[in-house]
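HUMAN: Mind sharing a backbone?

ASSISTANT:
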Amino acid sequence: MEYSVFIDGAEGTTGLGIHERFKKRNDIKIINIHESQKKDIGERVKRIKEADVTFLCLPDNAAKEIVKHLPAGIRIIDTSSAHRTDPEWIYGMPELCERQRELIRKSFRVTNPGCHATGFILLIRPLIDNGIISHSCPLCAISVTGYSGGGKKMIEHYTENEKSLVRAGPGQYALFQDHKHLPEMTVMTGLTKIPAFSPVIGCNHSGMAVSVTLHKSLFLKTVTVSEMTGIYEERYAAEPLITLVDKPPESGYIYAGEMAGKNDLKIYILGNDERVLLTAVFDNLGKGASAAALQNMNIMLGEEETKGLL
């Protein structure tokens, strides 16, 4: 069966990533729009109505605006952060909980997770659901991401100033604890306290590592690293795009670029019984963006979830 797909905002990094992944598919027909019509709401709505699925790869305000003009019953996957905590939209993370896949399958409005949020939520949600930490647990996270996460302007900035920026080293940002992924990181884990979050732009193009370190004093019950590994195995062992690792890499380092160019995600469960280190490693443009969007599309269309991804 052939599906018609429209990408509204196809020239952005996520849109381009979706296009790239469609090269592995022979069942996708891209609905194009002329350059002169890309800002014409009427023309865009026309193409969205023709499509089996539409990806909104737009800034938040533009995504909100186009949705106002769309009738119900049209499959939309919004890759912006505009609707991620909107109760009328389904959060597009199949691994979130037992019923999430079915909600995505039945939905016509799916909101793609943010890249930093993807790693944080997949690390923390199992601990809250299993009563290891409380909903009010004060958590801290750090995330190192490739500069492609900042979009075209940041890619150009790094490309043009590569030598000086590499010399300066990775750059921490969101210095006022106001990163736009924080709302979904809080809501989708069930936390009642917004986590302290430090995102860092690395000197690599793509790939990211999201880490949370937990002191045993935060646990509601005694749990060893081995027992914690068992919790993640029970939760994610059957997930096709998640791999669990309970041993450090041979190099002794976890690199943010380890999964660059790939569509799946690794979770490292390390540390010791006093202080546990949890790290999710994946491609910010893959499972953190475009690959996640295709995974959601496959579910919505009733196709194999990993089609075109593995």
Summary: The chain is about 35% helix and 20% strand.
